[in-house]
Amino acid sequence: MYFLYPAFLFALLSLAIPVVIHLFNFRRYKKVYFSNVQFLKEVQEQQASRRNLKERLILASRLLALLFLILAFARPFIPGAQDANAGKQRTISVFVDNSYSMETLNREGSLLDEAKRRAKEIVSAYNINDRFQLLTQDFEGKHQRLLSRDEFNDAVDAVKVSPQSRDLQQVISRQENLLKNQAGVVKSIFIISDFQKSKNDKPVKADSNIAISLVQLKAGNLPNVAVDSVWLLSAVHRPGESEKLVVRLHNYAAKKAEKIPLKILINGGQKALGSFSINAREVQNDTLSFSGLKAGWQRGEVQLQDNPVTFDNQFYFSFNVKQQMPVLLIDGGTPNAYLKAVFASDGFFAATRVADGNVDYAALNSYPIIIISDVKTIATGLAQQLRTYVAKGGTLVVFPSAEADLVNYKSFLLALNTGYPEKLVTQDVKVASINRQSPVFKNVFESFPQNPDLPLVKKYYQLSKSSTKQKSLMNLATGEPFWEGYNSGKGNVYVCAVPLNEEFSNLPRHALFVPVLFRMALLSEHDQPLFYTLGADESFEMPPVQITEKQLLKLSKDDQSIIPDVKQQEGSTLLYVSDQLRDPGIYSLKKQDSTLATLAFNDNRAESDMSYFTAADLEKLLPNAKPLLTAGNGSLKSVIAESNFGTQLWKLCIILALIFLLAEILLIRFYKPDQQGVIQAG
What we know:
The chain contains 12 helices and 33 strands. The strands form 8 sheets. Strands 17-16-18-19-24-23-22-20-21 form a 9-stranded mixed β-sheet. The model is unreliable at 39-46 and 675-682 (pLDDT under 50). The longest helix is centred in the first third of the chain and has 27 residues, at 48-74. Helices cover 22% and strands 30% of the residues. It is an alpha+beta fold.
């Protein structure tokens, strides 16, 4: 047997006090003189041996009561596995899972409420001088410090549900980062969670010198259907046109979900309604159509009715319906009549023509598509800016000049990882094939004739082969490319083998010319993403926003407003929100009183899967962890105390001290030695 506080054993010297009191408390007899013995009616006598027995029993009871009281303060224990750490100061990191899944109810209330209670039970098992860290899914800076027991309990009471969702490796690494700076103490980690299954099922790397304990809270197996994602089929959104929204539904339950009601709201008004059934554990895409949109930012919301898990019943998205689409035409100084006629035929396109020497580089990123034609030599500055434009996601269409500087074009296009004009070939040849699987032609033709009318070519530039994967649009009968598409950075480059000149081909007047350019323009539109995910997207990229030192960008929703960090980079503006956003919904990005964009934020759908790791799964994930801690309806305090300090005996000592105190009282009050010897008057 060992003692946690052996200094209290010096108090055993106090056992001498009852002994001294006993020795000096002899009963003294007093002589009483009577004038006549007839007044002495009765005298009770006790045998000396019986009287001594009573006094010795009382003394023994007092000594034992005091002994066990002193032992209780010394905290005796029978050592367990960690007896070497007894008496050392401890630092304990406790993780309380406050993700959305912890809102699930069980017999004790919500799992989060139970997690808070368990956290308090854990710290109560330790000494008052030990220090504690509280960690939640938010990974807040204020949780990167050590707390006393009372401070810890106050911090636990303040924990609320969070949209964040971290995996087990992230949590343990965060806890170890704090503990590794604590020298000379015993370190322990506790993780209180429902332990939802995640995609990351690889074994967790953890410090073997730190004891890790897992506390799994049990929730019932609840059915849940959620909207995982949405996307629009059309790349460009025009006023009044029909839109098709694809909704990805996920049934996380083990049984089929029948007739789940779903509706789409745009700017608060209902635009589409549906009802869907989904098989167990399956993902299903459904398409809903709506129309009647006006120009401007659209605030969209998908709603479904699915109980009892409701935190993922809404899904927000936003997009911009533009009145016009800007197109930049760059030429060698003479406007190209064919391009001008193409984009003048549809009022949706707003074409701006500029000579190659007068290009406003700062405005390039405001154009989804740029078309270069009839430029003999591309200047170094323009080439550099176009490379940046394409890398950021822009679309560039190149029609070489009839008098092109081939060396210059090679240098320009090689930097974009595309093919380039190698030499001029004079030969009558016909375009022989169209790649109907390319994005430009895919799903465009309702029917395709066996002998289509395709462009005729008199002379052309032979295009080199590119090191990157190319998307052939049209090929000549010789097998050479006539019009090629390339991925470059985040953007696309289309290179044609002929100038827009009828001396080279009839492409400028061919029936395919207009729809191909329109299709390229429509595919080039890159709106902001329909939505962002809270906790996952801590920064997002915007078109360039010019602000002064006194101007601030704000993200606002209802009465909430945050100021993101802004970083300007070439061709775009980066906004950092970090963990400032906590509530899902649709936010307006404002510069003073003007709205620059409307952005939608949704919760992380990782919390929607209400399936959990088993004890065997957790053992595989964390082989060095202690056995899973469970206390049923009881407290974790005794379980942890026994694990840390062995079998605690102080409670037994207090009970024994009380028993002996009670024995003393009973002896004094009720124990009467037999009465003997009666003297009567004679």
